Amino acid sequence: MTLVRSACPLNCPDGCAFLVEMTKNGLRVKGDPLNSITKGFVCSKGQALAKRVFSPDRLRYPLLRQGQGWQRLSWNQAYDLLTEKIKETLSDVGPWGIFHHYDYGNNGVLRELDQRFFQALGGVTEPRGSMCWGAGYRAQELDFGGVFSNSREDLEDARTIVLWGRDPAVTNVHLIPHLLAAKKRGARVLVINPIRVKSAEFADAFYQVKPGTDGALALGLSHIILRERWQDTRFIQDYVHGFEEFARRSKEFSPEKVEAITGVSVKQITELARSLSHSRPVSFILGYGLQRYVCGGNTVRAIDGLAVISGNIGRAGAGVHYAHQYHRGKMNSLLLPPERYQSRTYPHPILAEELLKANPPVQLAVVTRSNPLVQQPNTLLWRELWRKIPFKVVLDTVLTETARQSDLVLPVATIFEEEELVRTSWSPLIHYAQKVLEPQGEAQAEPMIFTELAKRLGLEKDFPYAAAREWLEFVLGPLTEAYGTTLDTLAQGPIYAPYIPKVAWEDKDFRTPSGKIELSSELAREELGEAVATYIPAEDREDKAEFPWHLITPHPGNALHSQFHQDDGFTMFLHPELADKYRLNHGDRAIIETVYGQLAASVVLSEDIHPETVVLPEGTTAEGLGVNQLILGKCSDIGESTSYYDMRCQIRKWCLD
């Protein structure tokens, strides 16, 4: 039995280490028992990666659309065609006529060679901002000067752990052992969420908050802490800038007002404020759902402020866990220097609208690591945009919806069929994913595809390496020089990055202009403006009367965005009280409608759902369209993040004519 070390490339907090075995029945994947995070088990999505290698749905050859069908091409024909299309576009309208859509479908570092390629062309049209997490990310940069978290092992030193909009039992299963270990040592686990999520089953308390009001709750908690003088005054004096303005803002959010906004009672708010200030250290573990609103950046800044005034920054067992930038600048980047190119960029949330009116127009689209016709908001508008782009190219392992609607499809290797280096913005580990088997059919490693295209277009100067291993050794160069870390050492197992501390900000070296935590600053005022609210009250929304209910579209347990989804239609989850208003029963079909679109879904009743909320999980499609056909693209207050959850909806019983 030969076991090969590999790693999970999915955009997930866990960052698992794999041990992979080739058997007569396919690949067998298990977690590395020596790995401090994986500890011998992997989730269903990791197993699905292995099943995809030999799946009948696997793309094995380059395909060119011919009418309603597909023609198989050789790689030489595919390269010739794509090279010709690139040259034509550069000649006709310049590099801005090329649109490159990419995201985080694969976290391998060599995947950045796609961006390097288009930068070498002079800079093309591409998205900026974020589909997922940009609001919270930018919020922490404003507050602390960077995005850093304590290690997950450090959670075991906490006395209070707050899972705020996060459900690790579904989306982050390898965090659970640390939470249970903390509980065993006496810590209390608290859950704040509009849904009684699975993690609430082992929590000590659950606080059900109305969707989009988390920022108001955080300010209300700060109000009580400051009113009762429970704050950490010494910490504030030594390390905080802008405290007075934050205190004035918090003063506006009395417990009574916050109860009316959030649905959390005054008693619960007071109880929670006491826990956060008296049972320290406190670790706040944030999910991305709570910042998927127009006010998402303000929400995370309010939670940061709550952690700051209670003295829960820069100490063991404390902190606001969101993501980390520890890997930034520690390895060689594959991106070209910014002065080498000039891209045309548009924000992710309104990308389709901007591209439809772009001048010069897009003539050639290339999609890597993403599936925009399902993942982006305004998916109906994306269909219109896609029809108007003369030639579309998709690189993927399966025929996604975007690939089905495109002209040229290029099959790429899976993580098991290539060499890669995997690092993420959550895990402290650096993994070397070794090649387990040869690519199926004629699939090729995506980084090598762009290396070949560069050669054909005379860009060899910017693509000096012909093999993946050479690129990987280049990336690792600084670590090899500083710590002796090589591919050979990583082949023995992933390493804990030596530059990552256990406790974030322990040295209090905040990277803001003032050198302190900035709860208020000139930079924040410039970006956020004076008039941005922490939440949008329901009574102030123009669409409240026609669309009275909140719509949330969270991750399902076995899918990740559009990866591994099931084509079996939609399911909406409702509280029985809301279902009664429309005479809906468990198993009925119902229509869910927003200002942007409508779809039919099966009804499931659950008392775990907030009574004013409709939950429609992503991860399924019908006729190629996912839940984002209901979502209008809106930019968050900062970070140009997509406000997927800032939609209201109406429901009605589905009746046959």
Automatic annotation (TrEMBL):
Residues 1-55 form the 4Fe-4S Mo/W bis-MGD-type domain. SUPFAM superfamilies: ADC-like (SSF50692), Formate dehydrogenase/DMSO reductase, domains 1-3 (SSF53706). Its cofactor is Mo-bis(molybdopterin guanine dinucleotide). CDD domains: MopB_3. One of its GO terms (molecular function) is molybdopterin cofactor binding. Its EC number is 1.8.5.3. Keywords: Iron, Iron-sulfur, Metal-binding, Molybdenum, Oxidoreductase. It holds the Pfam family Molydop_binding. SMART domains: Molybdop_Fe4S4. Belongs to the prokaryotic molybdopterin-containing oxidoreductase family. This is Dimethyl sulfoxide reductase DmsA. The lineage of its organism: Bacteria, Bacillati, Bacillota, Clostridia, Eubacteriales. The gene is dmsA.
